[in-house]
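Researcher: We plan to redesign the surface later, but first we want a full-length starting point. Tokens attached.
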């Protein structure tokens, strides 16, 4: 039995993988996962074997994420609490993700410290999902970490006396996950689970950054988060201050920052593997720590959600930490231009014309189209400084993308069909879907300016595409570039229960993509 300890942003978390059967493990929750078909065949027999009666089976049908919590008396080892967990048809990773996310969320509510999952079926699950035991184990651990995450750092608990009394003495939720009954697959499961632990932990780190409000996460704080990630993962981090940014001529970033009391930062992360590298990949993330719209101020309803306008940056930091911990054989550069977007007497004004690092002048039709201004400089810097094989940027760039594709799917643009295809496939595999939109030249018409090289605002329609067309100017003919607009899926608005807030969208997708290149 080996133990792998990973520190997630919240409480400590231990992962244990064992070939031995699950039932005798001393645990707060014994989890028995069943696909729809397996339940029919084995459900009754399994319950009887545990000394439980079969009556729950009249209601429990094993739909993906369905849960039935049963109780029994045990003397000595074993668990008095048993969860039947539905895997649905189990034909894709998505079913397993949904199931284990829902399990973890419930186990947190029940304050289960040690959760033990019966993994005897992993081999069969992998076959049904046309996957591998290793990958299924990875999905399982990613999903459990995802479902277990809560953003409670800013709750003092001072006003919750009743709750505090009730919860006193109960264990921290899911401090240990035991994958038991792995038998001959133990090694494969351990390998996959370890990778899942890395990705899930890094994704939750990204979510934490997205959830932090503007007063708790300034551009300087975001840079510090990158430094911390660099220490954990073992990659280099350099932070440019205002002076250096000005010296480089990053006129887009300076213009957006102009109305703010906080200094801008430009963070450069570099992961270099030992030995030969197959490719250099540059990842660029929009780091607007709060987007008020600036002088073109946003309506107040929902403006608080604009604390999440640095989700692209958070994703890039998370991916850098994950790829370095996974030691992928690629050189990965992460670039994060960061500032808030505020109105003030010194703020950028509509109609102002600015000069970006590329020398391209921009007519600022709307100060709320600020993301593309800071990304412009970062794309120029990426291309000029690193000549990377691939450039991918991620940004909560346009409300129009939400109009087009909704809250669950990201918009994707690329000047390379093969790259677009690979990103699409990784999105499917990782459960973070993207849909490609065109970069046709017809749309460039809409961002022409009478007074500068280009306008930051498009005329009517296709706002997500005109934003992408704007960015295209700054990759300066680079042949393998993709832009992912994550405005929809990066953040779940209030009311989404334990699942609301930052999602860390893109971390799993990009890790999957980079793995496929490694
Ligand atoms: N950060 C917003 C986009 C956004 C909106 C993200 C909603 C997540 C949810 C971006 O900076 C913005 O304000 N875009 C404008 C562009 C417009 C002024 C051309 C928009 O989408 O309205
Ligand atoms: Mn904006
Ligand atoms: Zn924005």
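Model: Full-length starting sequence:
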């Amino acid at each position: 039995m080996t133990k792998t300890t990973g520190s997630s942003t919240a409480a400590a978390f231990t992962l244990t993988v064992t070939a031995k059967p699950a039932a005798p493990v001393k645990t707060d929750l014994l989890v028995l996962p069943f696909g729809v078909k397996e339940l029919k065949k084995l459900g009754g027999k399994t319950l009887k074997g545990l000394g439980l009666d079969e009556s729950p089976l009249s209601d429990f049908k094993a739909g993906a994420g369905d849960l039935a919590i049963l109780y029994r008396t045990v003397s000595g080892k074993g668990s008095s609490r048993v969860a039947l967990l539905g895997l649905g048809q189990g034909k894709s990773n998505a079913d397993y993700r949904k199931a284990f996310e829902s399990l973890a969320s419930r186990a947190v509510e029940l304050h289960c410290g040690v959760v033990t999952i019966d993994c005897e079926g992993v081999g069969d699950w992998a076959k049904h999902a046309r996957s591998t035991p290793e990958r299924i184990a990875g999905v399982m651990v990613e999903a459990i970490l995802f479902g277990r995450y809560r953003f409670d750092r800013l709750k003092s608990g001072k006003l919750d006396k009743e709750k505090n009394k009730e919860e006193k003495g109960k264990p921290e939720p899911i401090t240990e996950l035991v994958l038991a009954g792995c038998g001959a697959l133990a090694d494969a499961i351990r390998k996959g689970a370890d990778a899942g632990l890395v990705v899930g932990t890094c994704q939750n780190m990204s979510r934490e950054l997205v959830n932090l409000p503007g007063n708790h996460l300034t551009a300087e704080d975001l840079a510090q988060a990158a430094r911390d990630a660099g220490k954990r993962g073992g990659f280099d981090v350099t932070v440019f201050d205002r002076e250096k940014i000005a010296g480089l001529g990053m006129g887009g970033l300076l213009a957006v920052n102009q109305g703010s009391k906080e200094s801008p930062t430009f963070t450069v992360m570099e992961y270099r593997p030992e030995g030969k590298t197959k490719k250099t990949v540059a990842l660029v993330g929009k780091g607007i720590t709060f987007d008020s719209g600036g002088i073109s101020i946003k309506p107040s309803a929902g403006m608080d959600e604009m604390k999440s306008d640095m989700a692209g940056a958070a994703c890039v930091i998370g991916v850098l930490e994950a790829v370095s911990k996974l030691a992928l054989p690629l050189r990965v550069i992460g670039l994060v231009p960061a500032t808030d977007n505020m109105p003030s007497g010194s703020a950028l004004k509509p109609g102002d014309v600015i000069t970006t690092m590329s020398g391209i002048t921009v007519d600022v039709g709307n100060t709320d189209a600020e993301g593309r201004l800071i990304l412009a400089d970062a794309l120029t810097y990426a291309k000029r400084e690193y000549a990377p094989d691939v450039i991918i940027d991620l940004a909560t760039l346009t409300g129009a993308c939400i109009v087009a594709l909704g809250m669950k799917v990201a918009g994707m643009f690329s000047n390379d069909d093969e790259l677009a295809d690979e990103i699409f496939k990784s999105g499917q595999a990782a459960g973070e879907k993207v849909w490609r939109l065109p970069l046709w030249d017809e749309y460039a018409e809409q961002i022409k300016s009478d007074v500068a090289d280009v306008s930051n605002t498009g005329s009517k329609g296709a706002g997500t595409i005109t934003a992408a067309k704007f960015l295209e100017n700054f990759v300066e003919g680079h042949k393998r570039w993709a832009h992912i607009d994550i405005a929809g899926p990066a953040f779940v608005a209030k009311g989404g229960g334990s699942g609301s807030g930052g999602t860390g969208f893109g971390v799993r997708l990009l890790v999957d993509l980079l793995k496929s290149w490694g």
